[in-house]
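Closing statement on the adenosine-5'-diphosphate sub-project.
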Amino acid sequence: MTNFREPSVTPPEEVTVEDRALRPQRLSEMIGQRDVFERLGIAVDAAQKRNEVLGHILFDGPPGLGKTTFATCIPRELGTPLQIASGAALAAPKDLLPYLTNVSERSVLFIDEIHRLPHAVEEFLYPAMEDFRIDITLGDGIAARTINMPLRPFTLIGATTRAGLISAPLRDRFQLREHLDFYSIEELAEIVRRSALKLAMPMDNESANEIARRSRGTPRLANNRLRWIRDYSTSRCNGRVDVEIVCTALQMQGIDELGLDGFDRRYLETIQRVFGGGPVGVEAVAHTMNTAIDTLEDDIEPYMLRCELVVRTPRGRRITARGSQHIGSFSAAHEQRRLFGG
Ligand code: ADP
């Protein structure tokens, strides 16, 4: 038990000051995901009324939909401390130990990308989650002995983009399992309006709706698009924003009417052009695009499947008529702009 690392108190992903400024601080500031919000509200309220520790919670869903935000709002509601760890950085039980020994009564430990925990770390977590206890083995072979160390009752919140990769024993130890789905245009438009307000940026409803339509159902992308439009408008339009400025700024980033960017379209084009529309395995598409399979499976495909631009078949991915039509119409519009401008 040497080499203890101090627990990180910063989120695992890169978070800018503006990210933090736009991130809701309380559950009541969360827009959309009403069912999840209601259930979490009830669980938090009940834990507070009974003076008990909140049960463990697992969030799953594509990136940028609010898993970290929900996880960081919950301890604020409870008035308890939060520690943040990433599954990818917890290579052995000893890496988890400082977090567990640091938990205070009813505090929250958030593990992002929990599907990346190695099996040994996962097993180490089981008694911690179930009985608030850890079993530490000292020594080797015949001289080995196990000591049990009690922990203060705490809440584990896990987040994953791959619910399917979580083992059943780990999954079953979470009392609440919440799936986050893509946001509606109306919900995203509301997020855009609120973020614009926080950035002191003018925003009419038509512009907010246009940004929402082009954000792939994802709040993180809506906020990223908004920041780019703010830069564009400051640099080129004296800080003015209208729907035409929104369209021009997003077009400059290669974001089309469906909110797809160049990389998304390259995925569709690869299936269409290189593999004759499919079916094709995701590995072959990833190799051809020179990218990681995880990037396609986590970041690109969920929205493509949701929009029915591609379908999954037992023999691999296949582009749909809608998918082919979308690339066709984008290429035609692109060519027209190239020839005639605008
Ligand atoms: P995830 O952990 O699922 O990848 P995050 O929780 O980091 O996603 O969310 C990304 C950003 O999107 C946050 O910084 C926040 O500004 C915004 N966001 C996410 N969900 C919501 C929501 N329900 N309401 C308002 N903003 C949201």
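The beta strands are 57-60, 82-86, 108-112, 133-138, 145-150, 155-160, 176-179, 310-313, 316-319. With this model delivered, the sub-project is considered complete and its resources will be redirected to Aim 3.
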